[in-house]
Design a protein that fits this description.
Length: 142
């Protein structure tokens, strides 16, 4: 009987092992994705609250579905493991627009304006916990 070596972080049959950090990262990513998917559906369905919020931010109501489509595409790309980094980049840009929109109307800093920043940081933490090799790409570990 011969024992075949396997790569670190995988089982004998080659499937990846799930660490606690990986499971936490997946849970964070699912919660973030669910929240953003809910937001995208709201922009596509245009209930009164979304109409009022869109107008309050200074956008024409007819642009809300466009924002919803962009957000939905980014969430789907983020949900697919092979394209998650690309999705996270798109969502980071989207959240940056949210920060700018809230700054423009002088919304409260901690509760409104920086919410998207905090949300984006949590999104990236979840992604790094799912795929720790991203720290190497970013030059944060060797």
């Amino acid at each position: 009987m011969t024992v075949t070596p396997h790569a670190a972080g995988t089982t004998v049959d080659g499937t990846p092992t799930r660490t606690i950090a990986n499971k936490v990262g997946i849970a964070m990513s699912v919660l973030i994705g669910a929240f953003l998917a809910f937001d995208a559906v709201g922009k596509l369905m245009l209930p009164d609250a979304v109409r009022e919020g869109t107008v309050a931010l200074g956008f024409p109501v007819h642009l809300a579905p466009v924002m919803g489509i962009v957000l939905a595409v980014c969430v789907v790309v983020y949900a697919v493991p092979r394209t998650a980094v690309l999705g996270a980049l798109g969502l980071t840009a989207y959240l940056g627009g949210a920060v700018t929109a809230n700054m423009r109307i002088e919304a409260p800093l901690l509760t409104h304006t920086l919410f998207a920043v905090f949300f984006g940081v949590l999104m990236w933490i979840g992604l790094v916990l799912r795929s720790p090799e991203l720290l190497k790409v970013a030059g944060l570990t060797r």
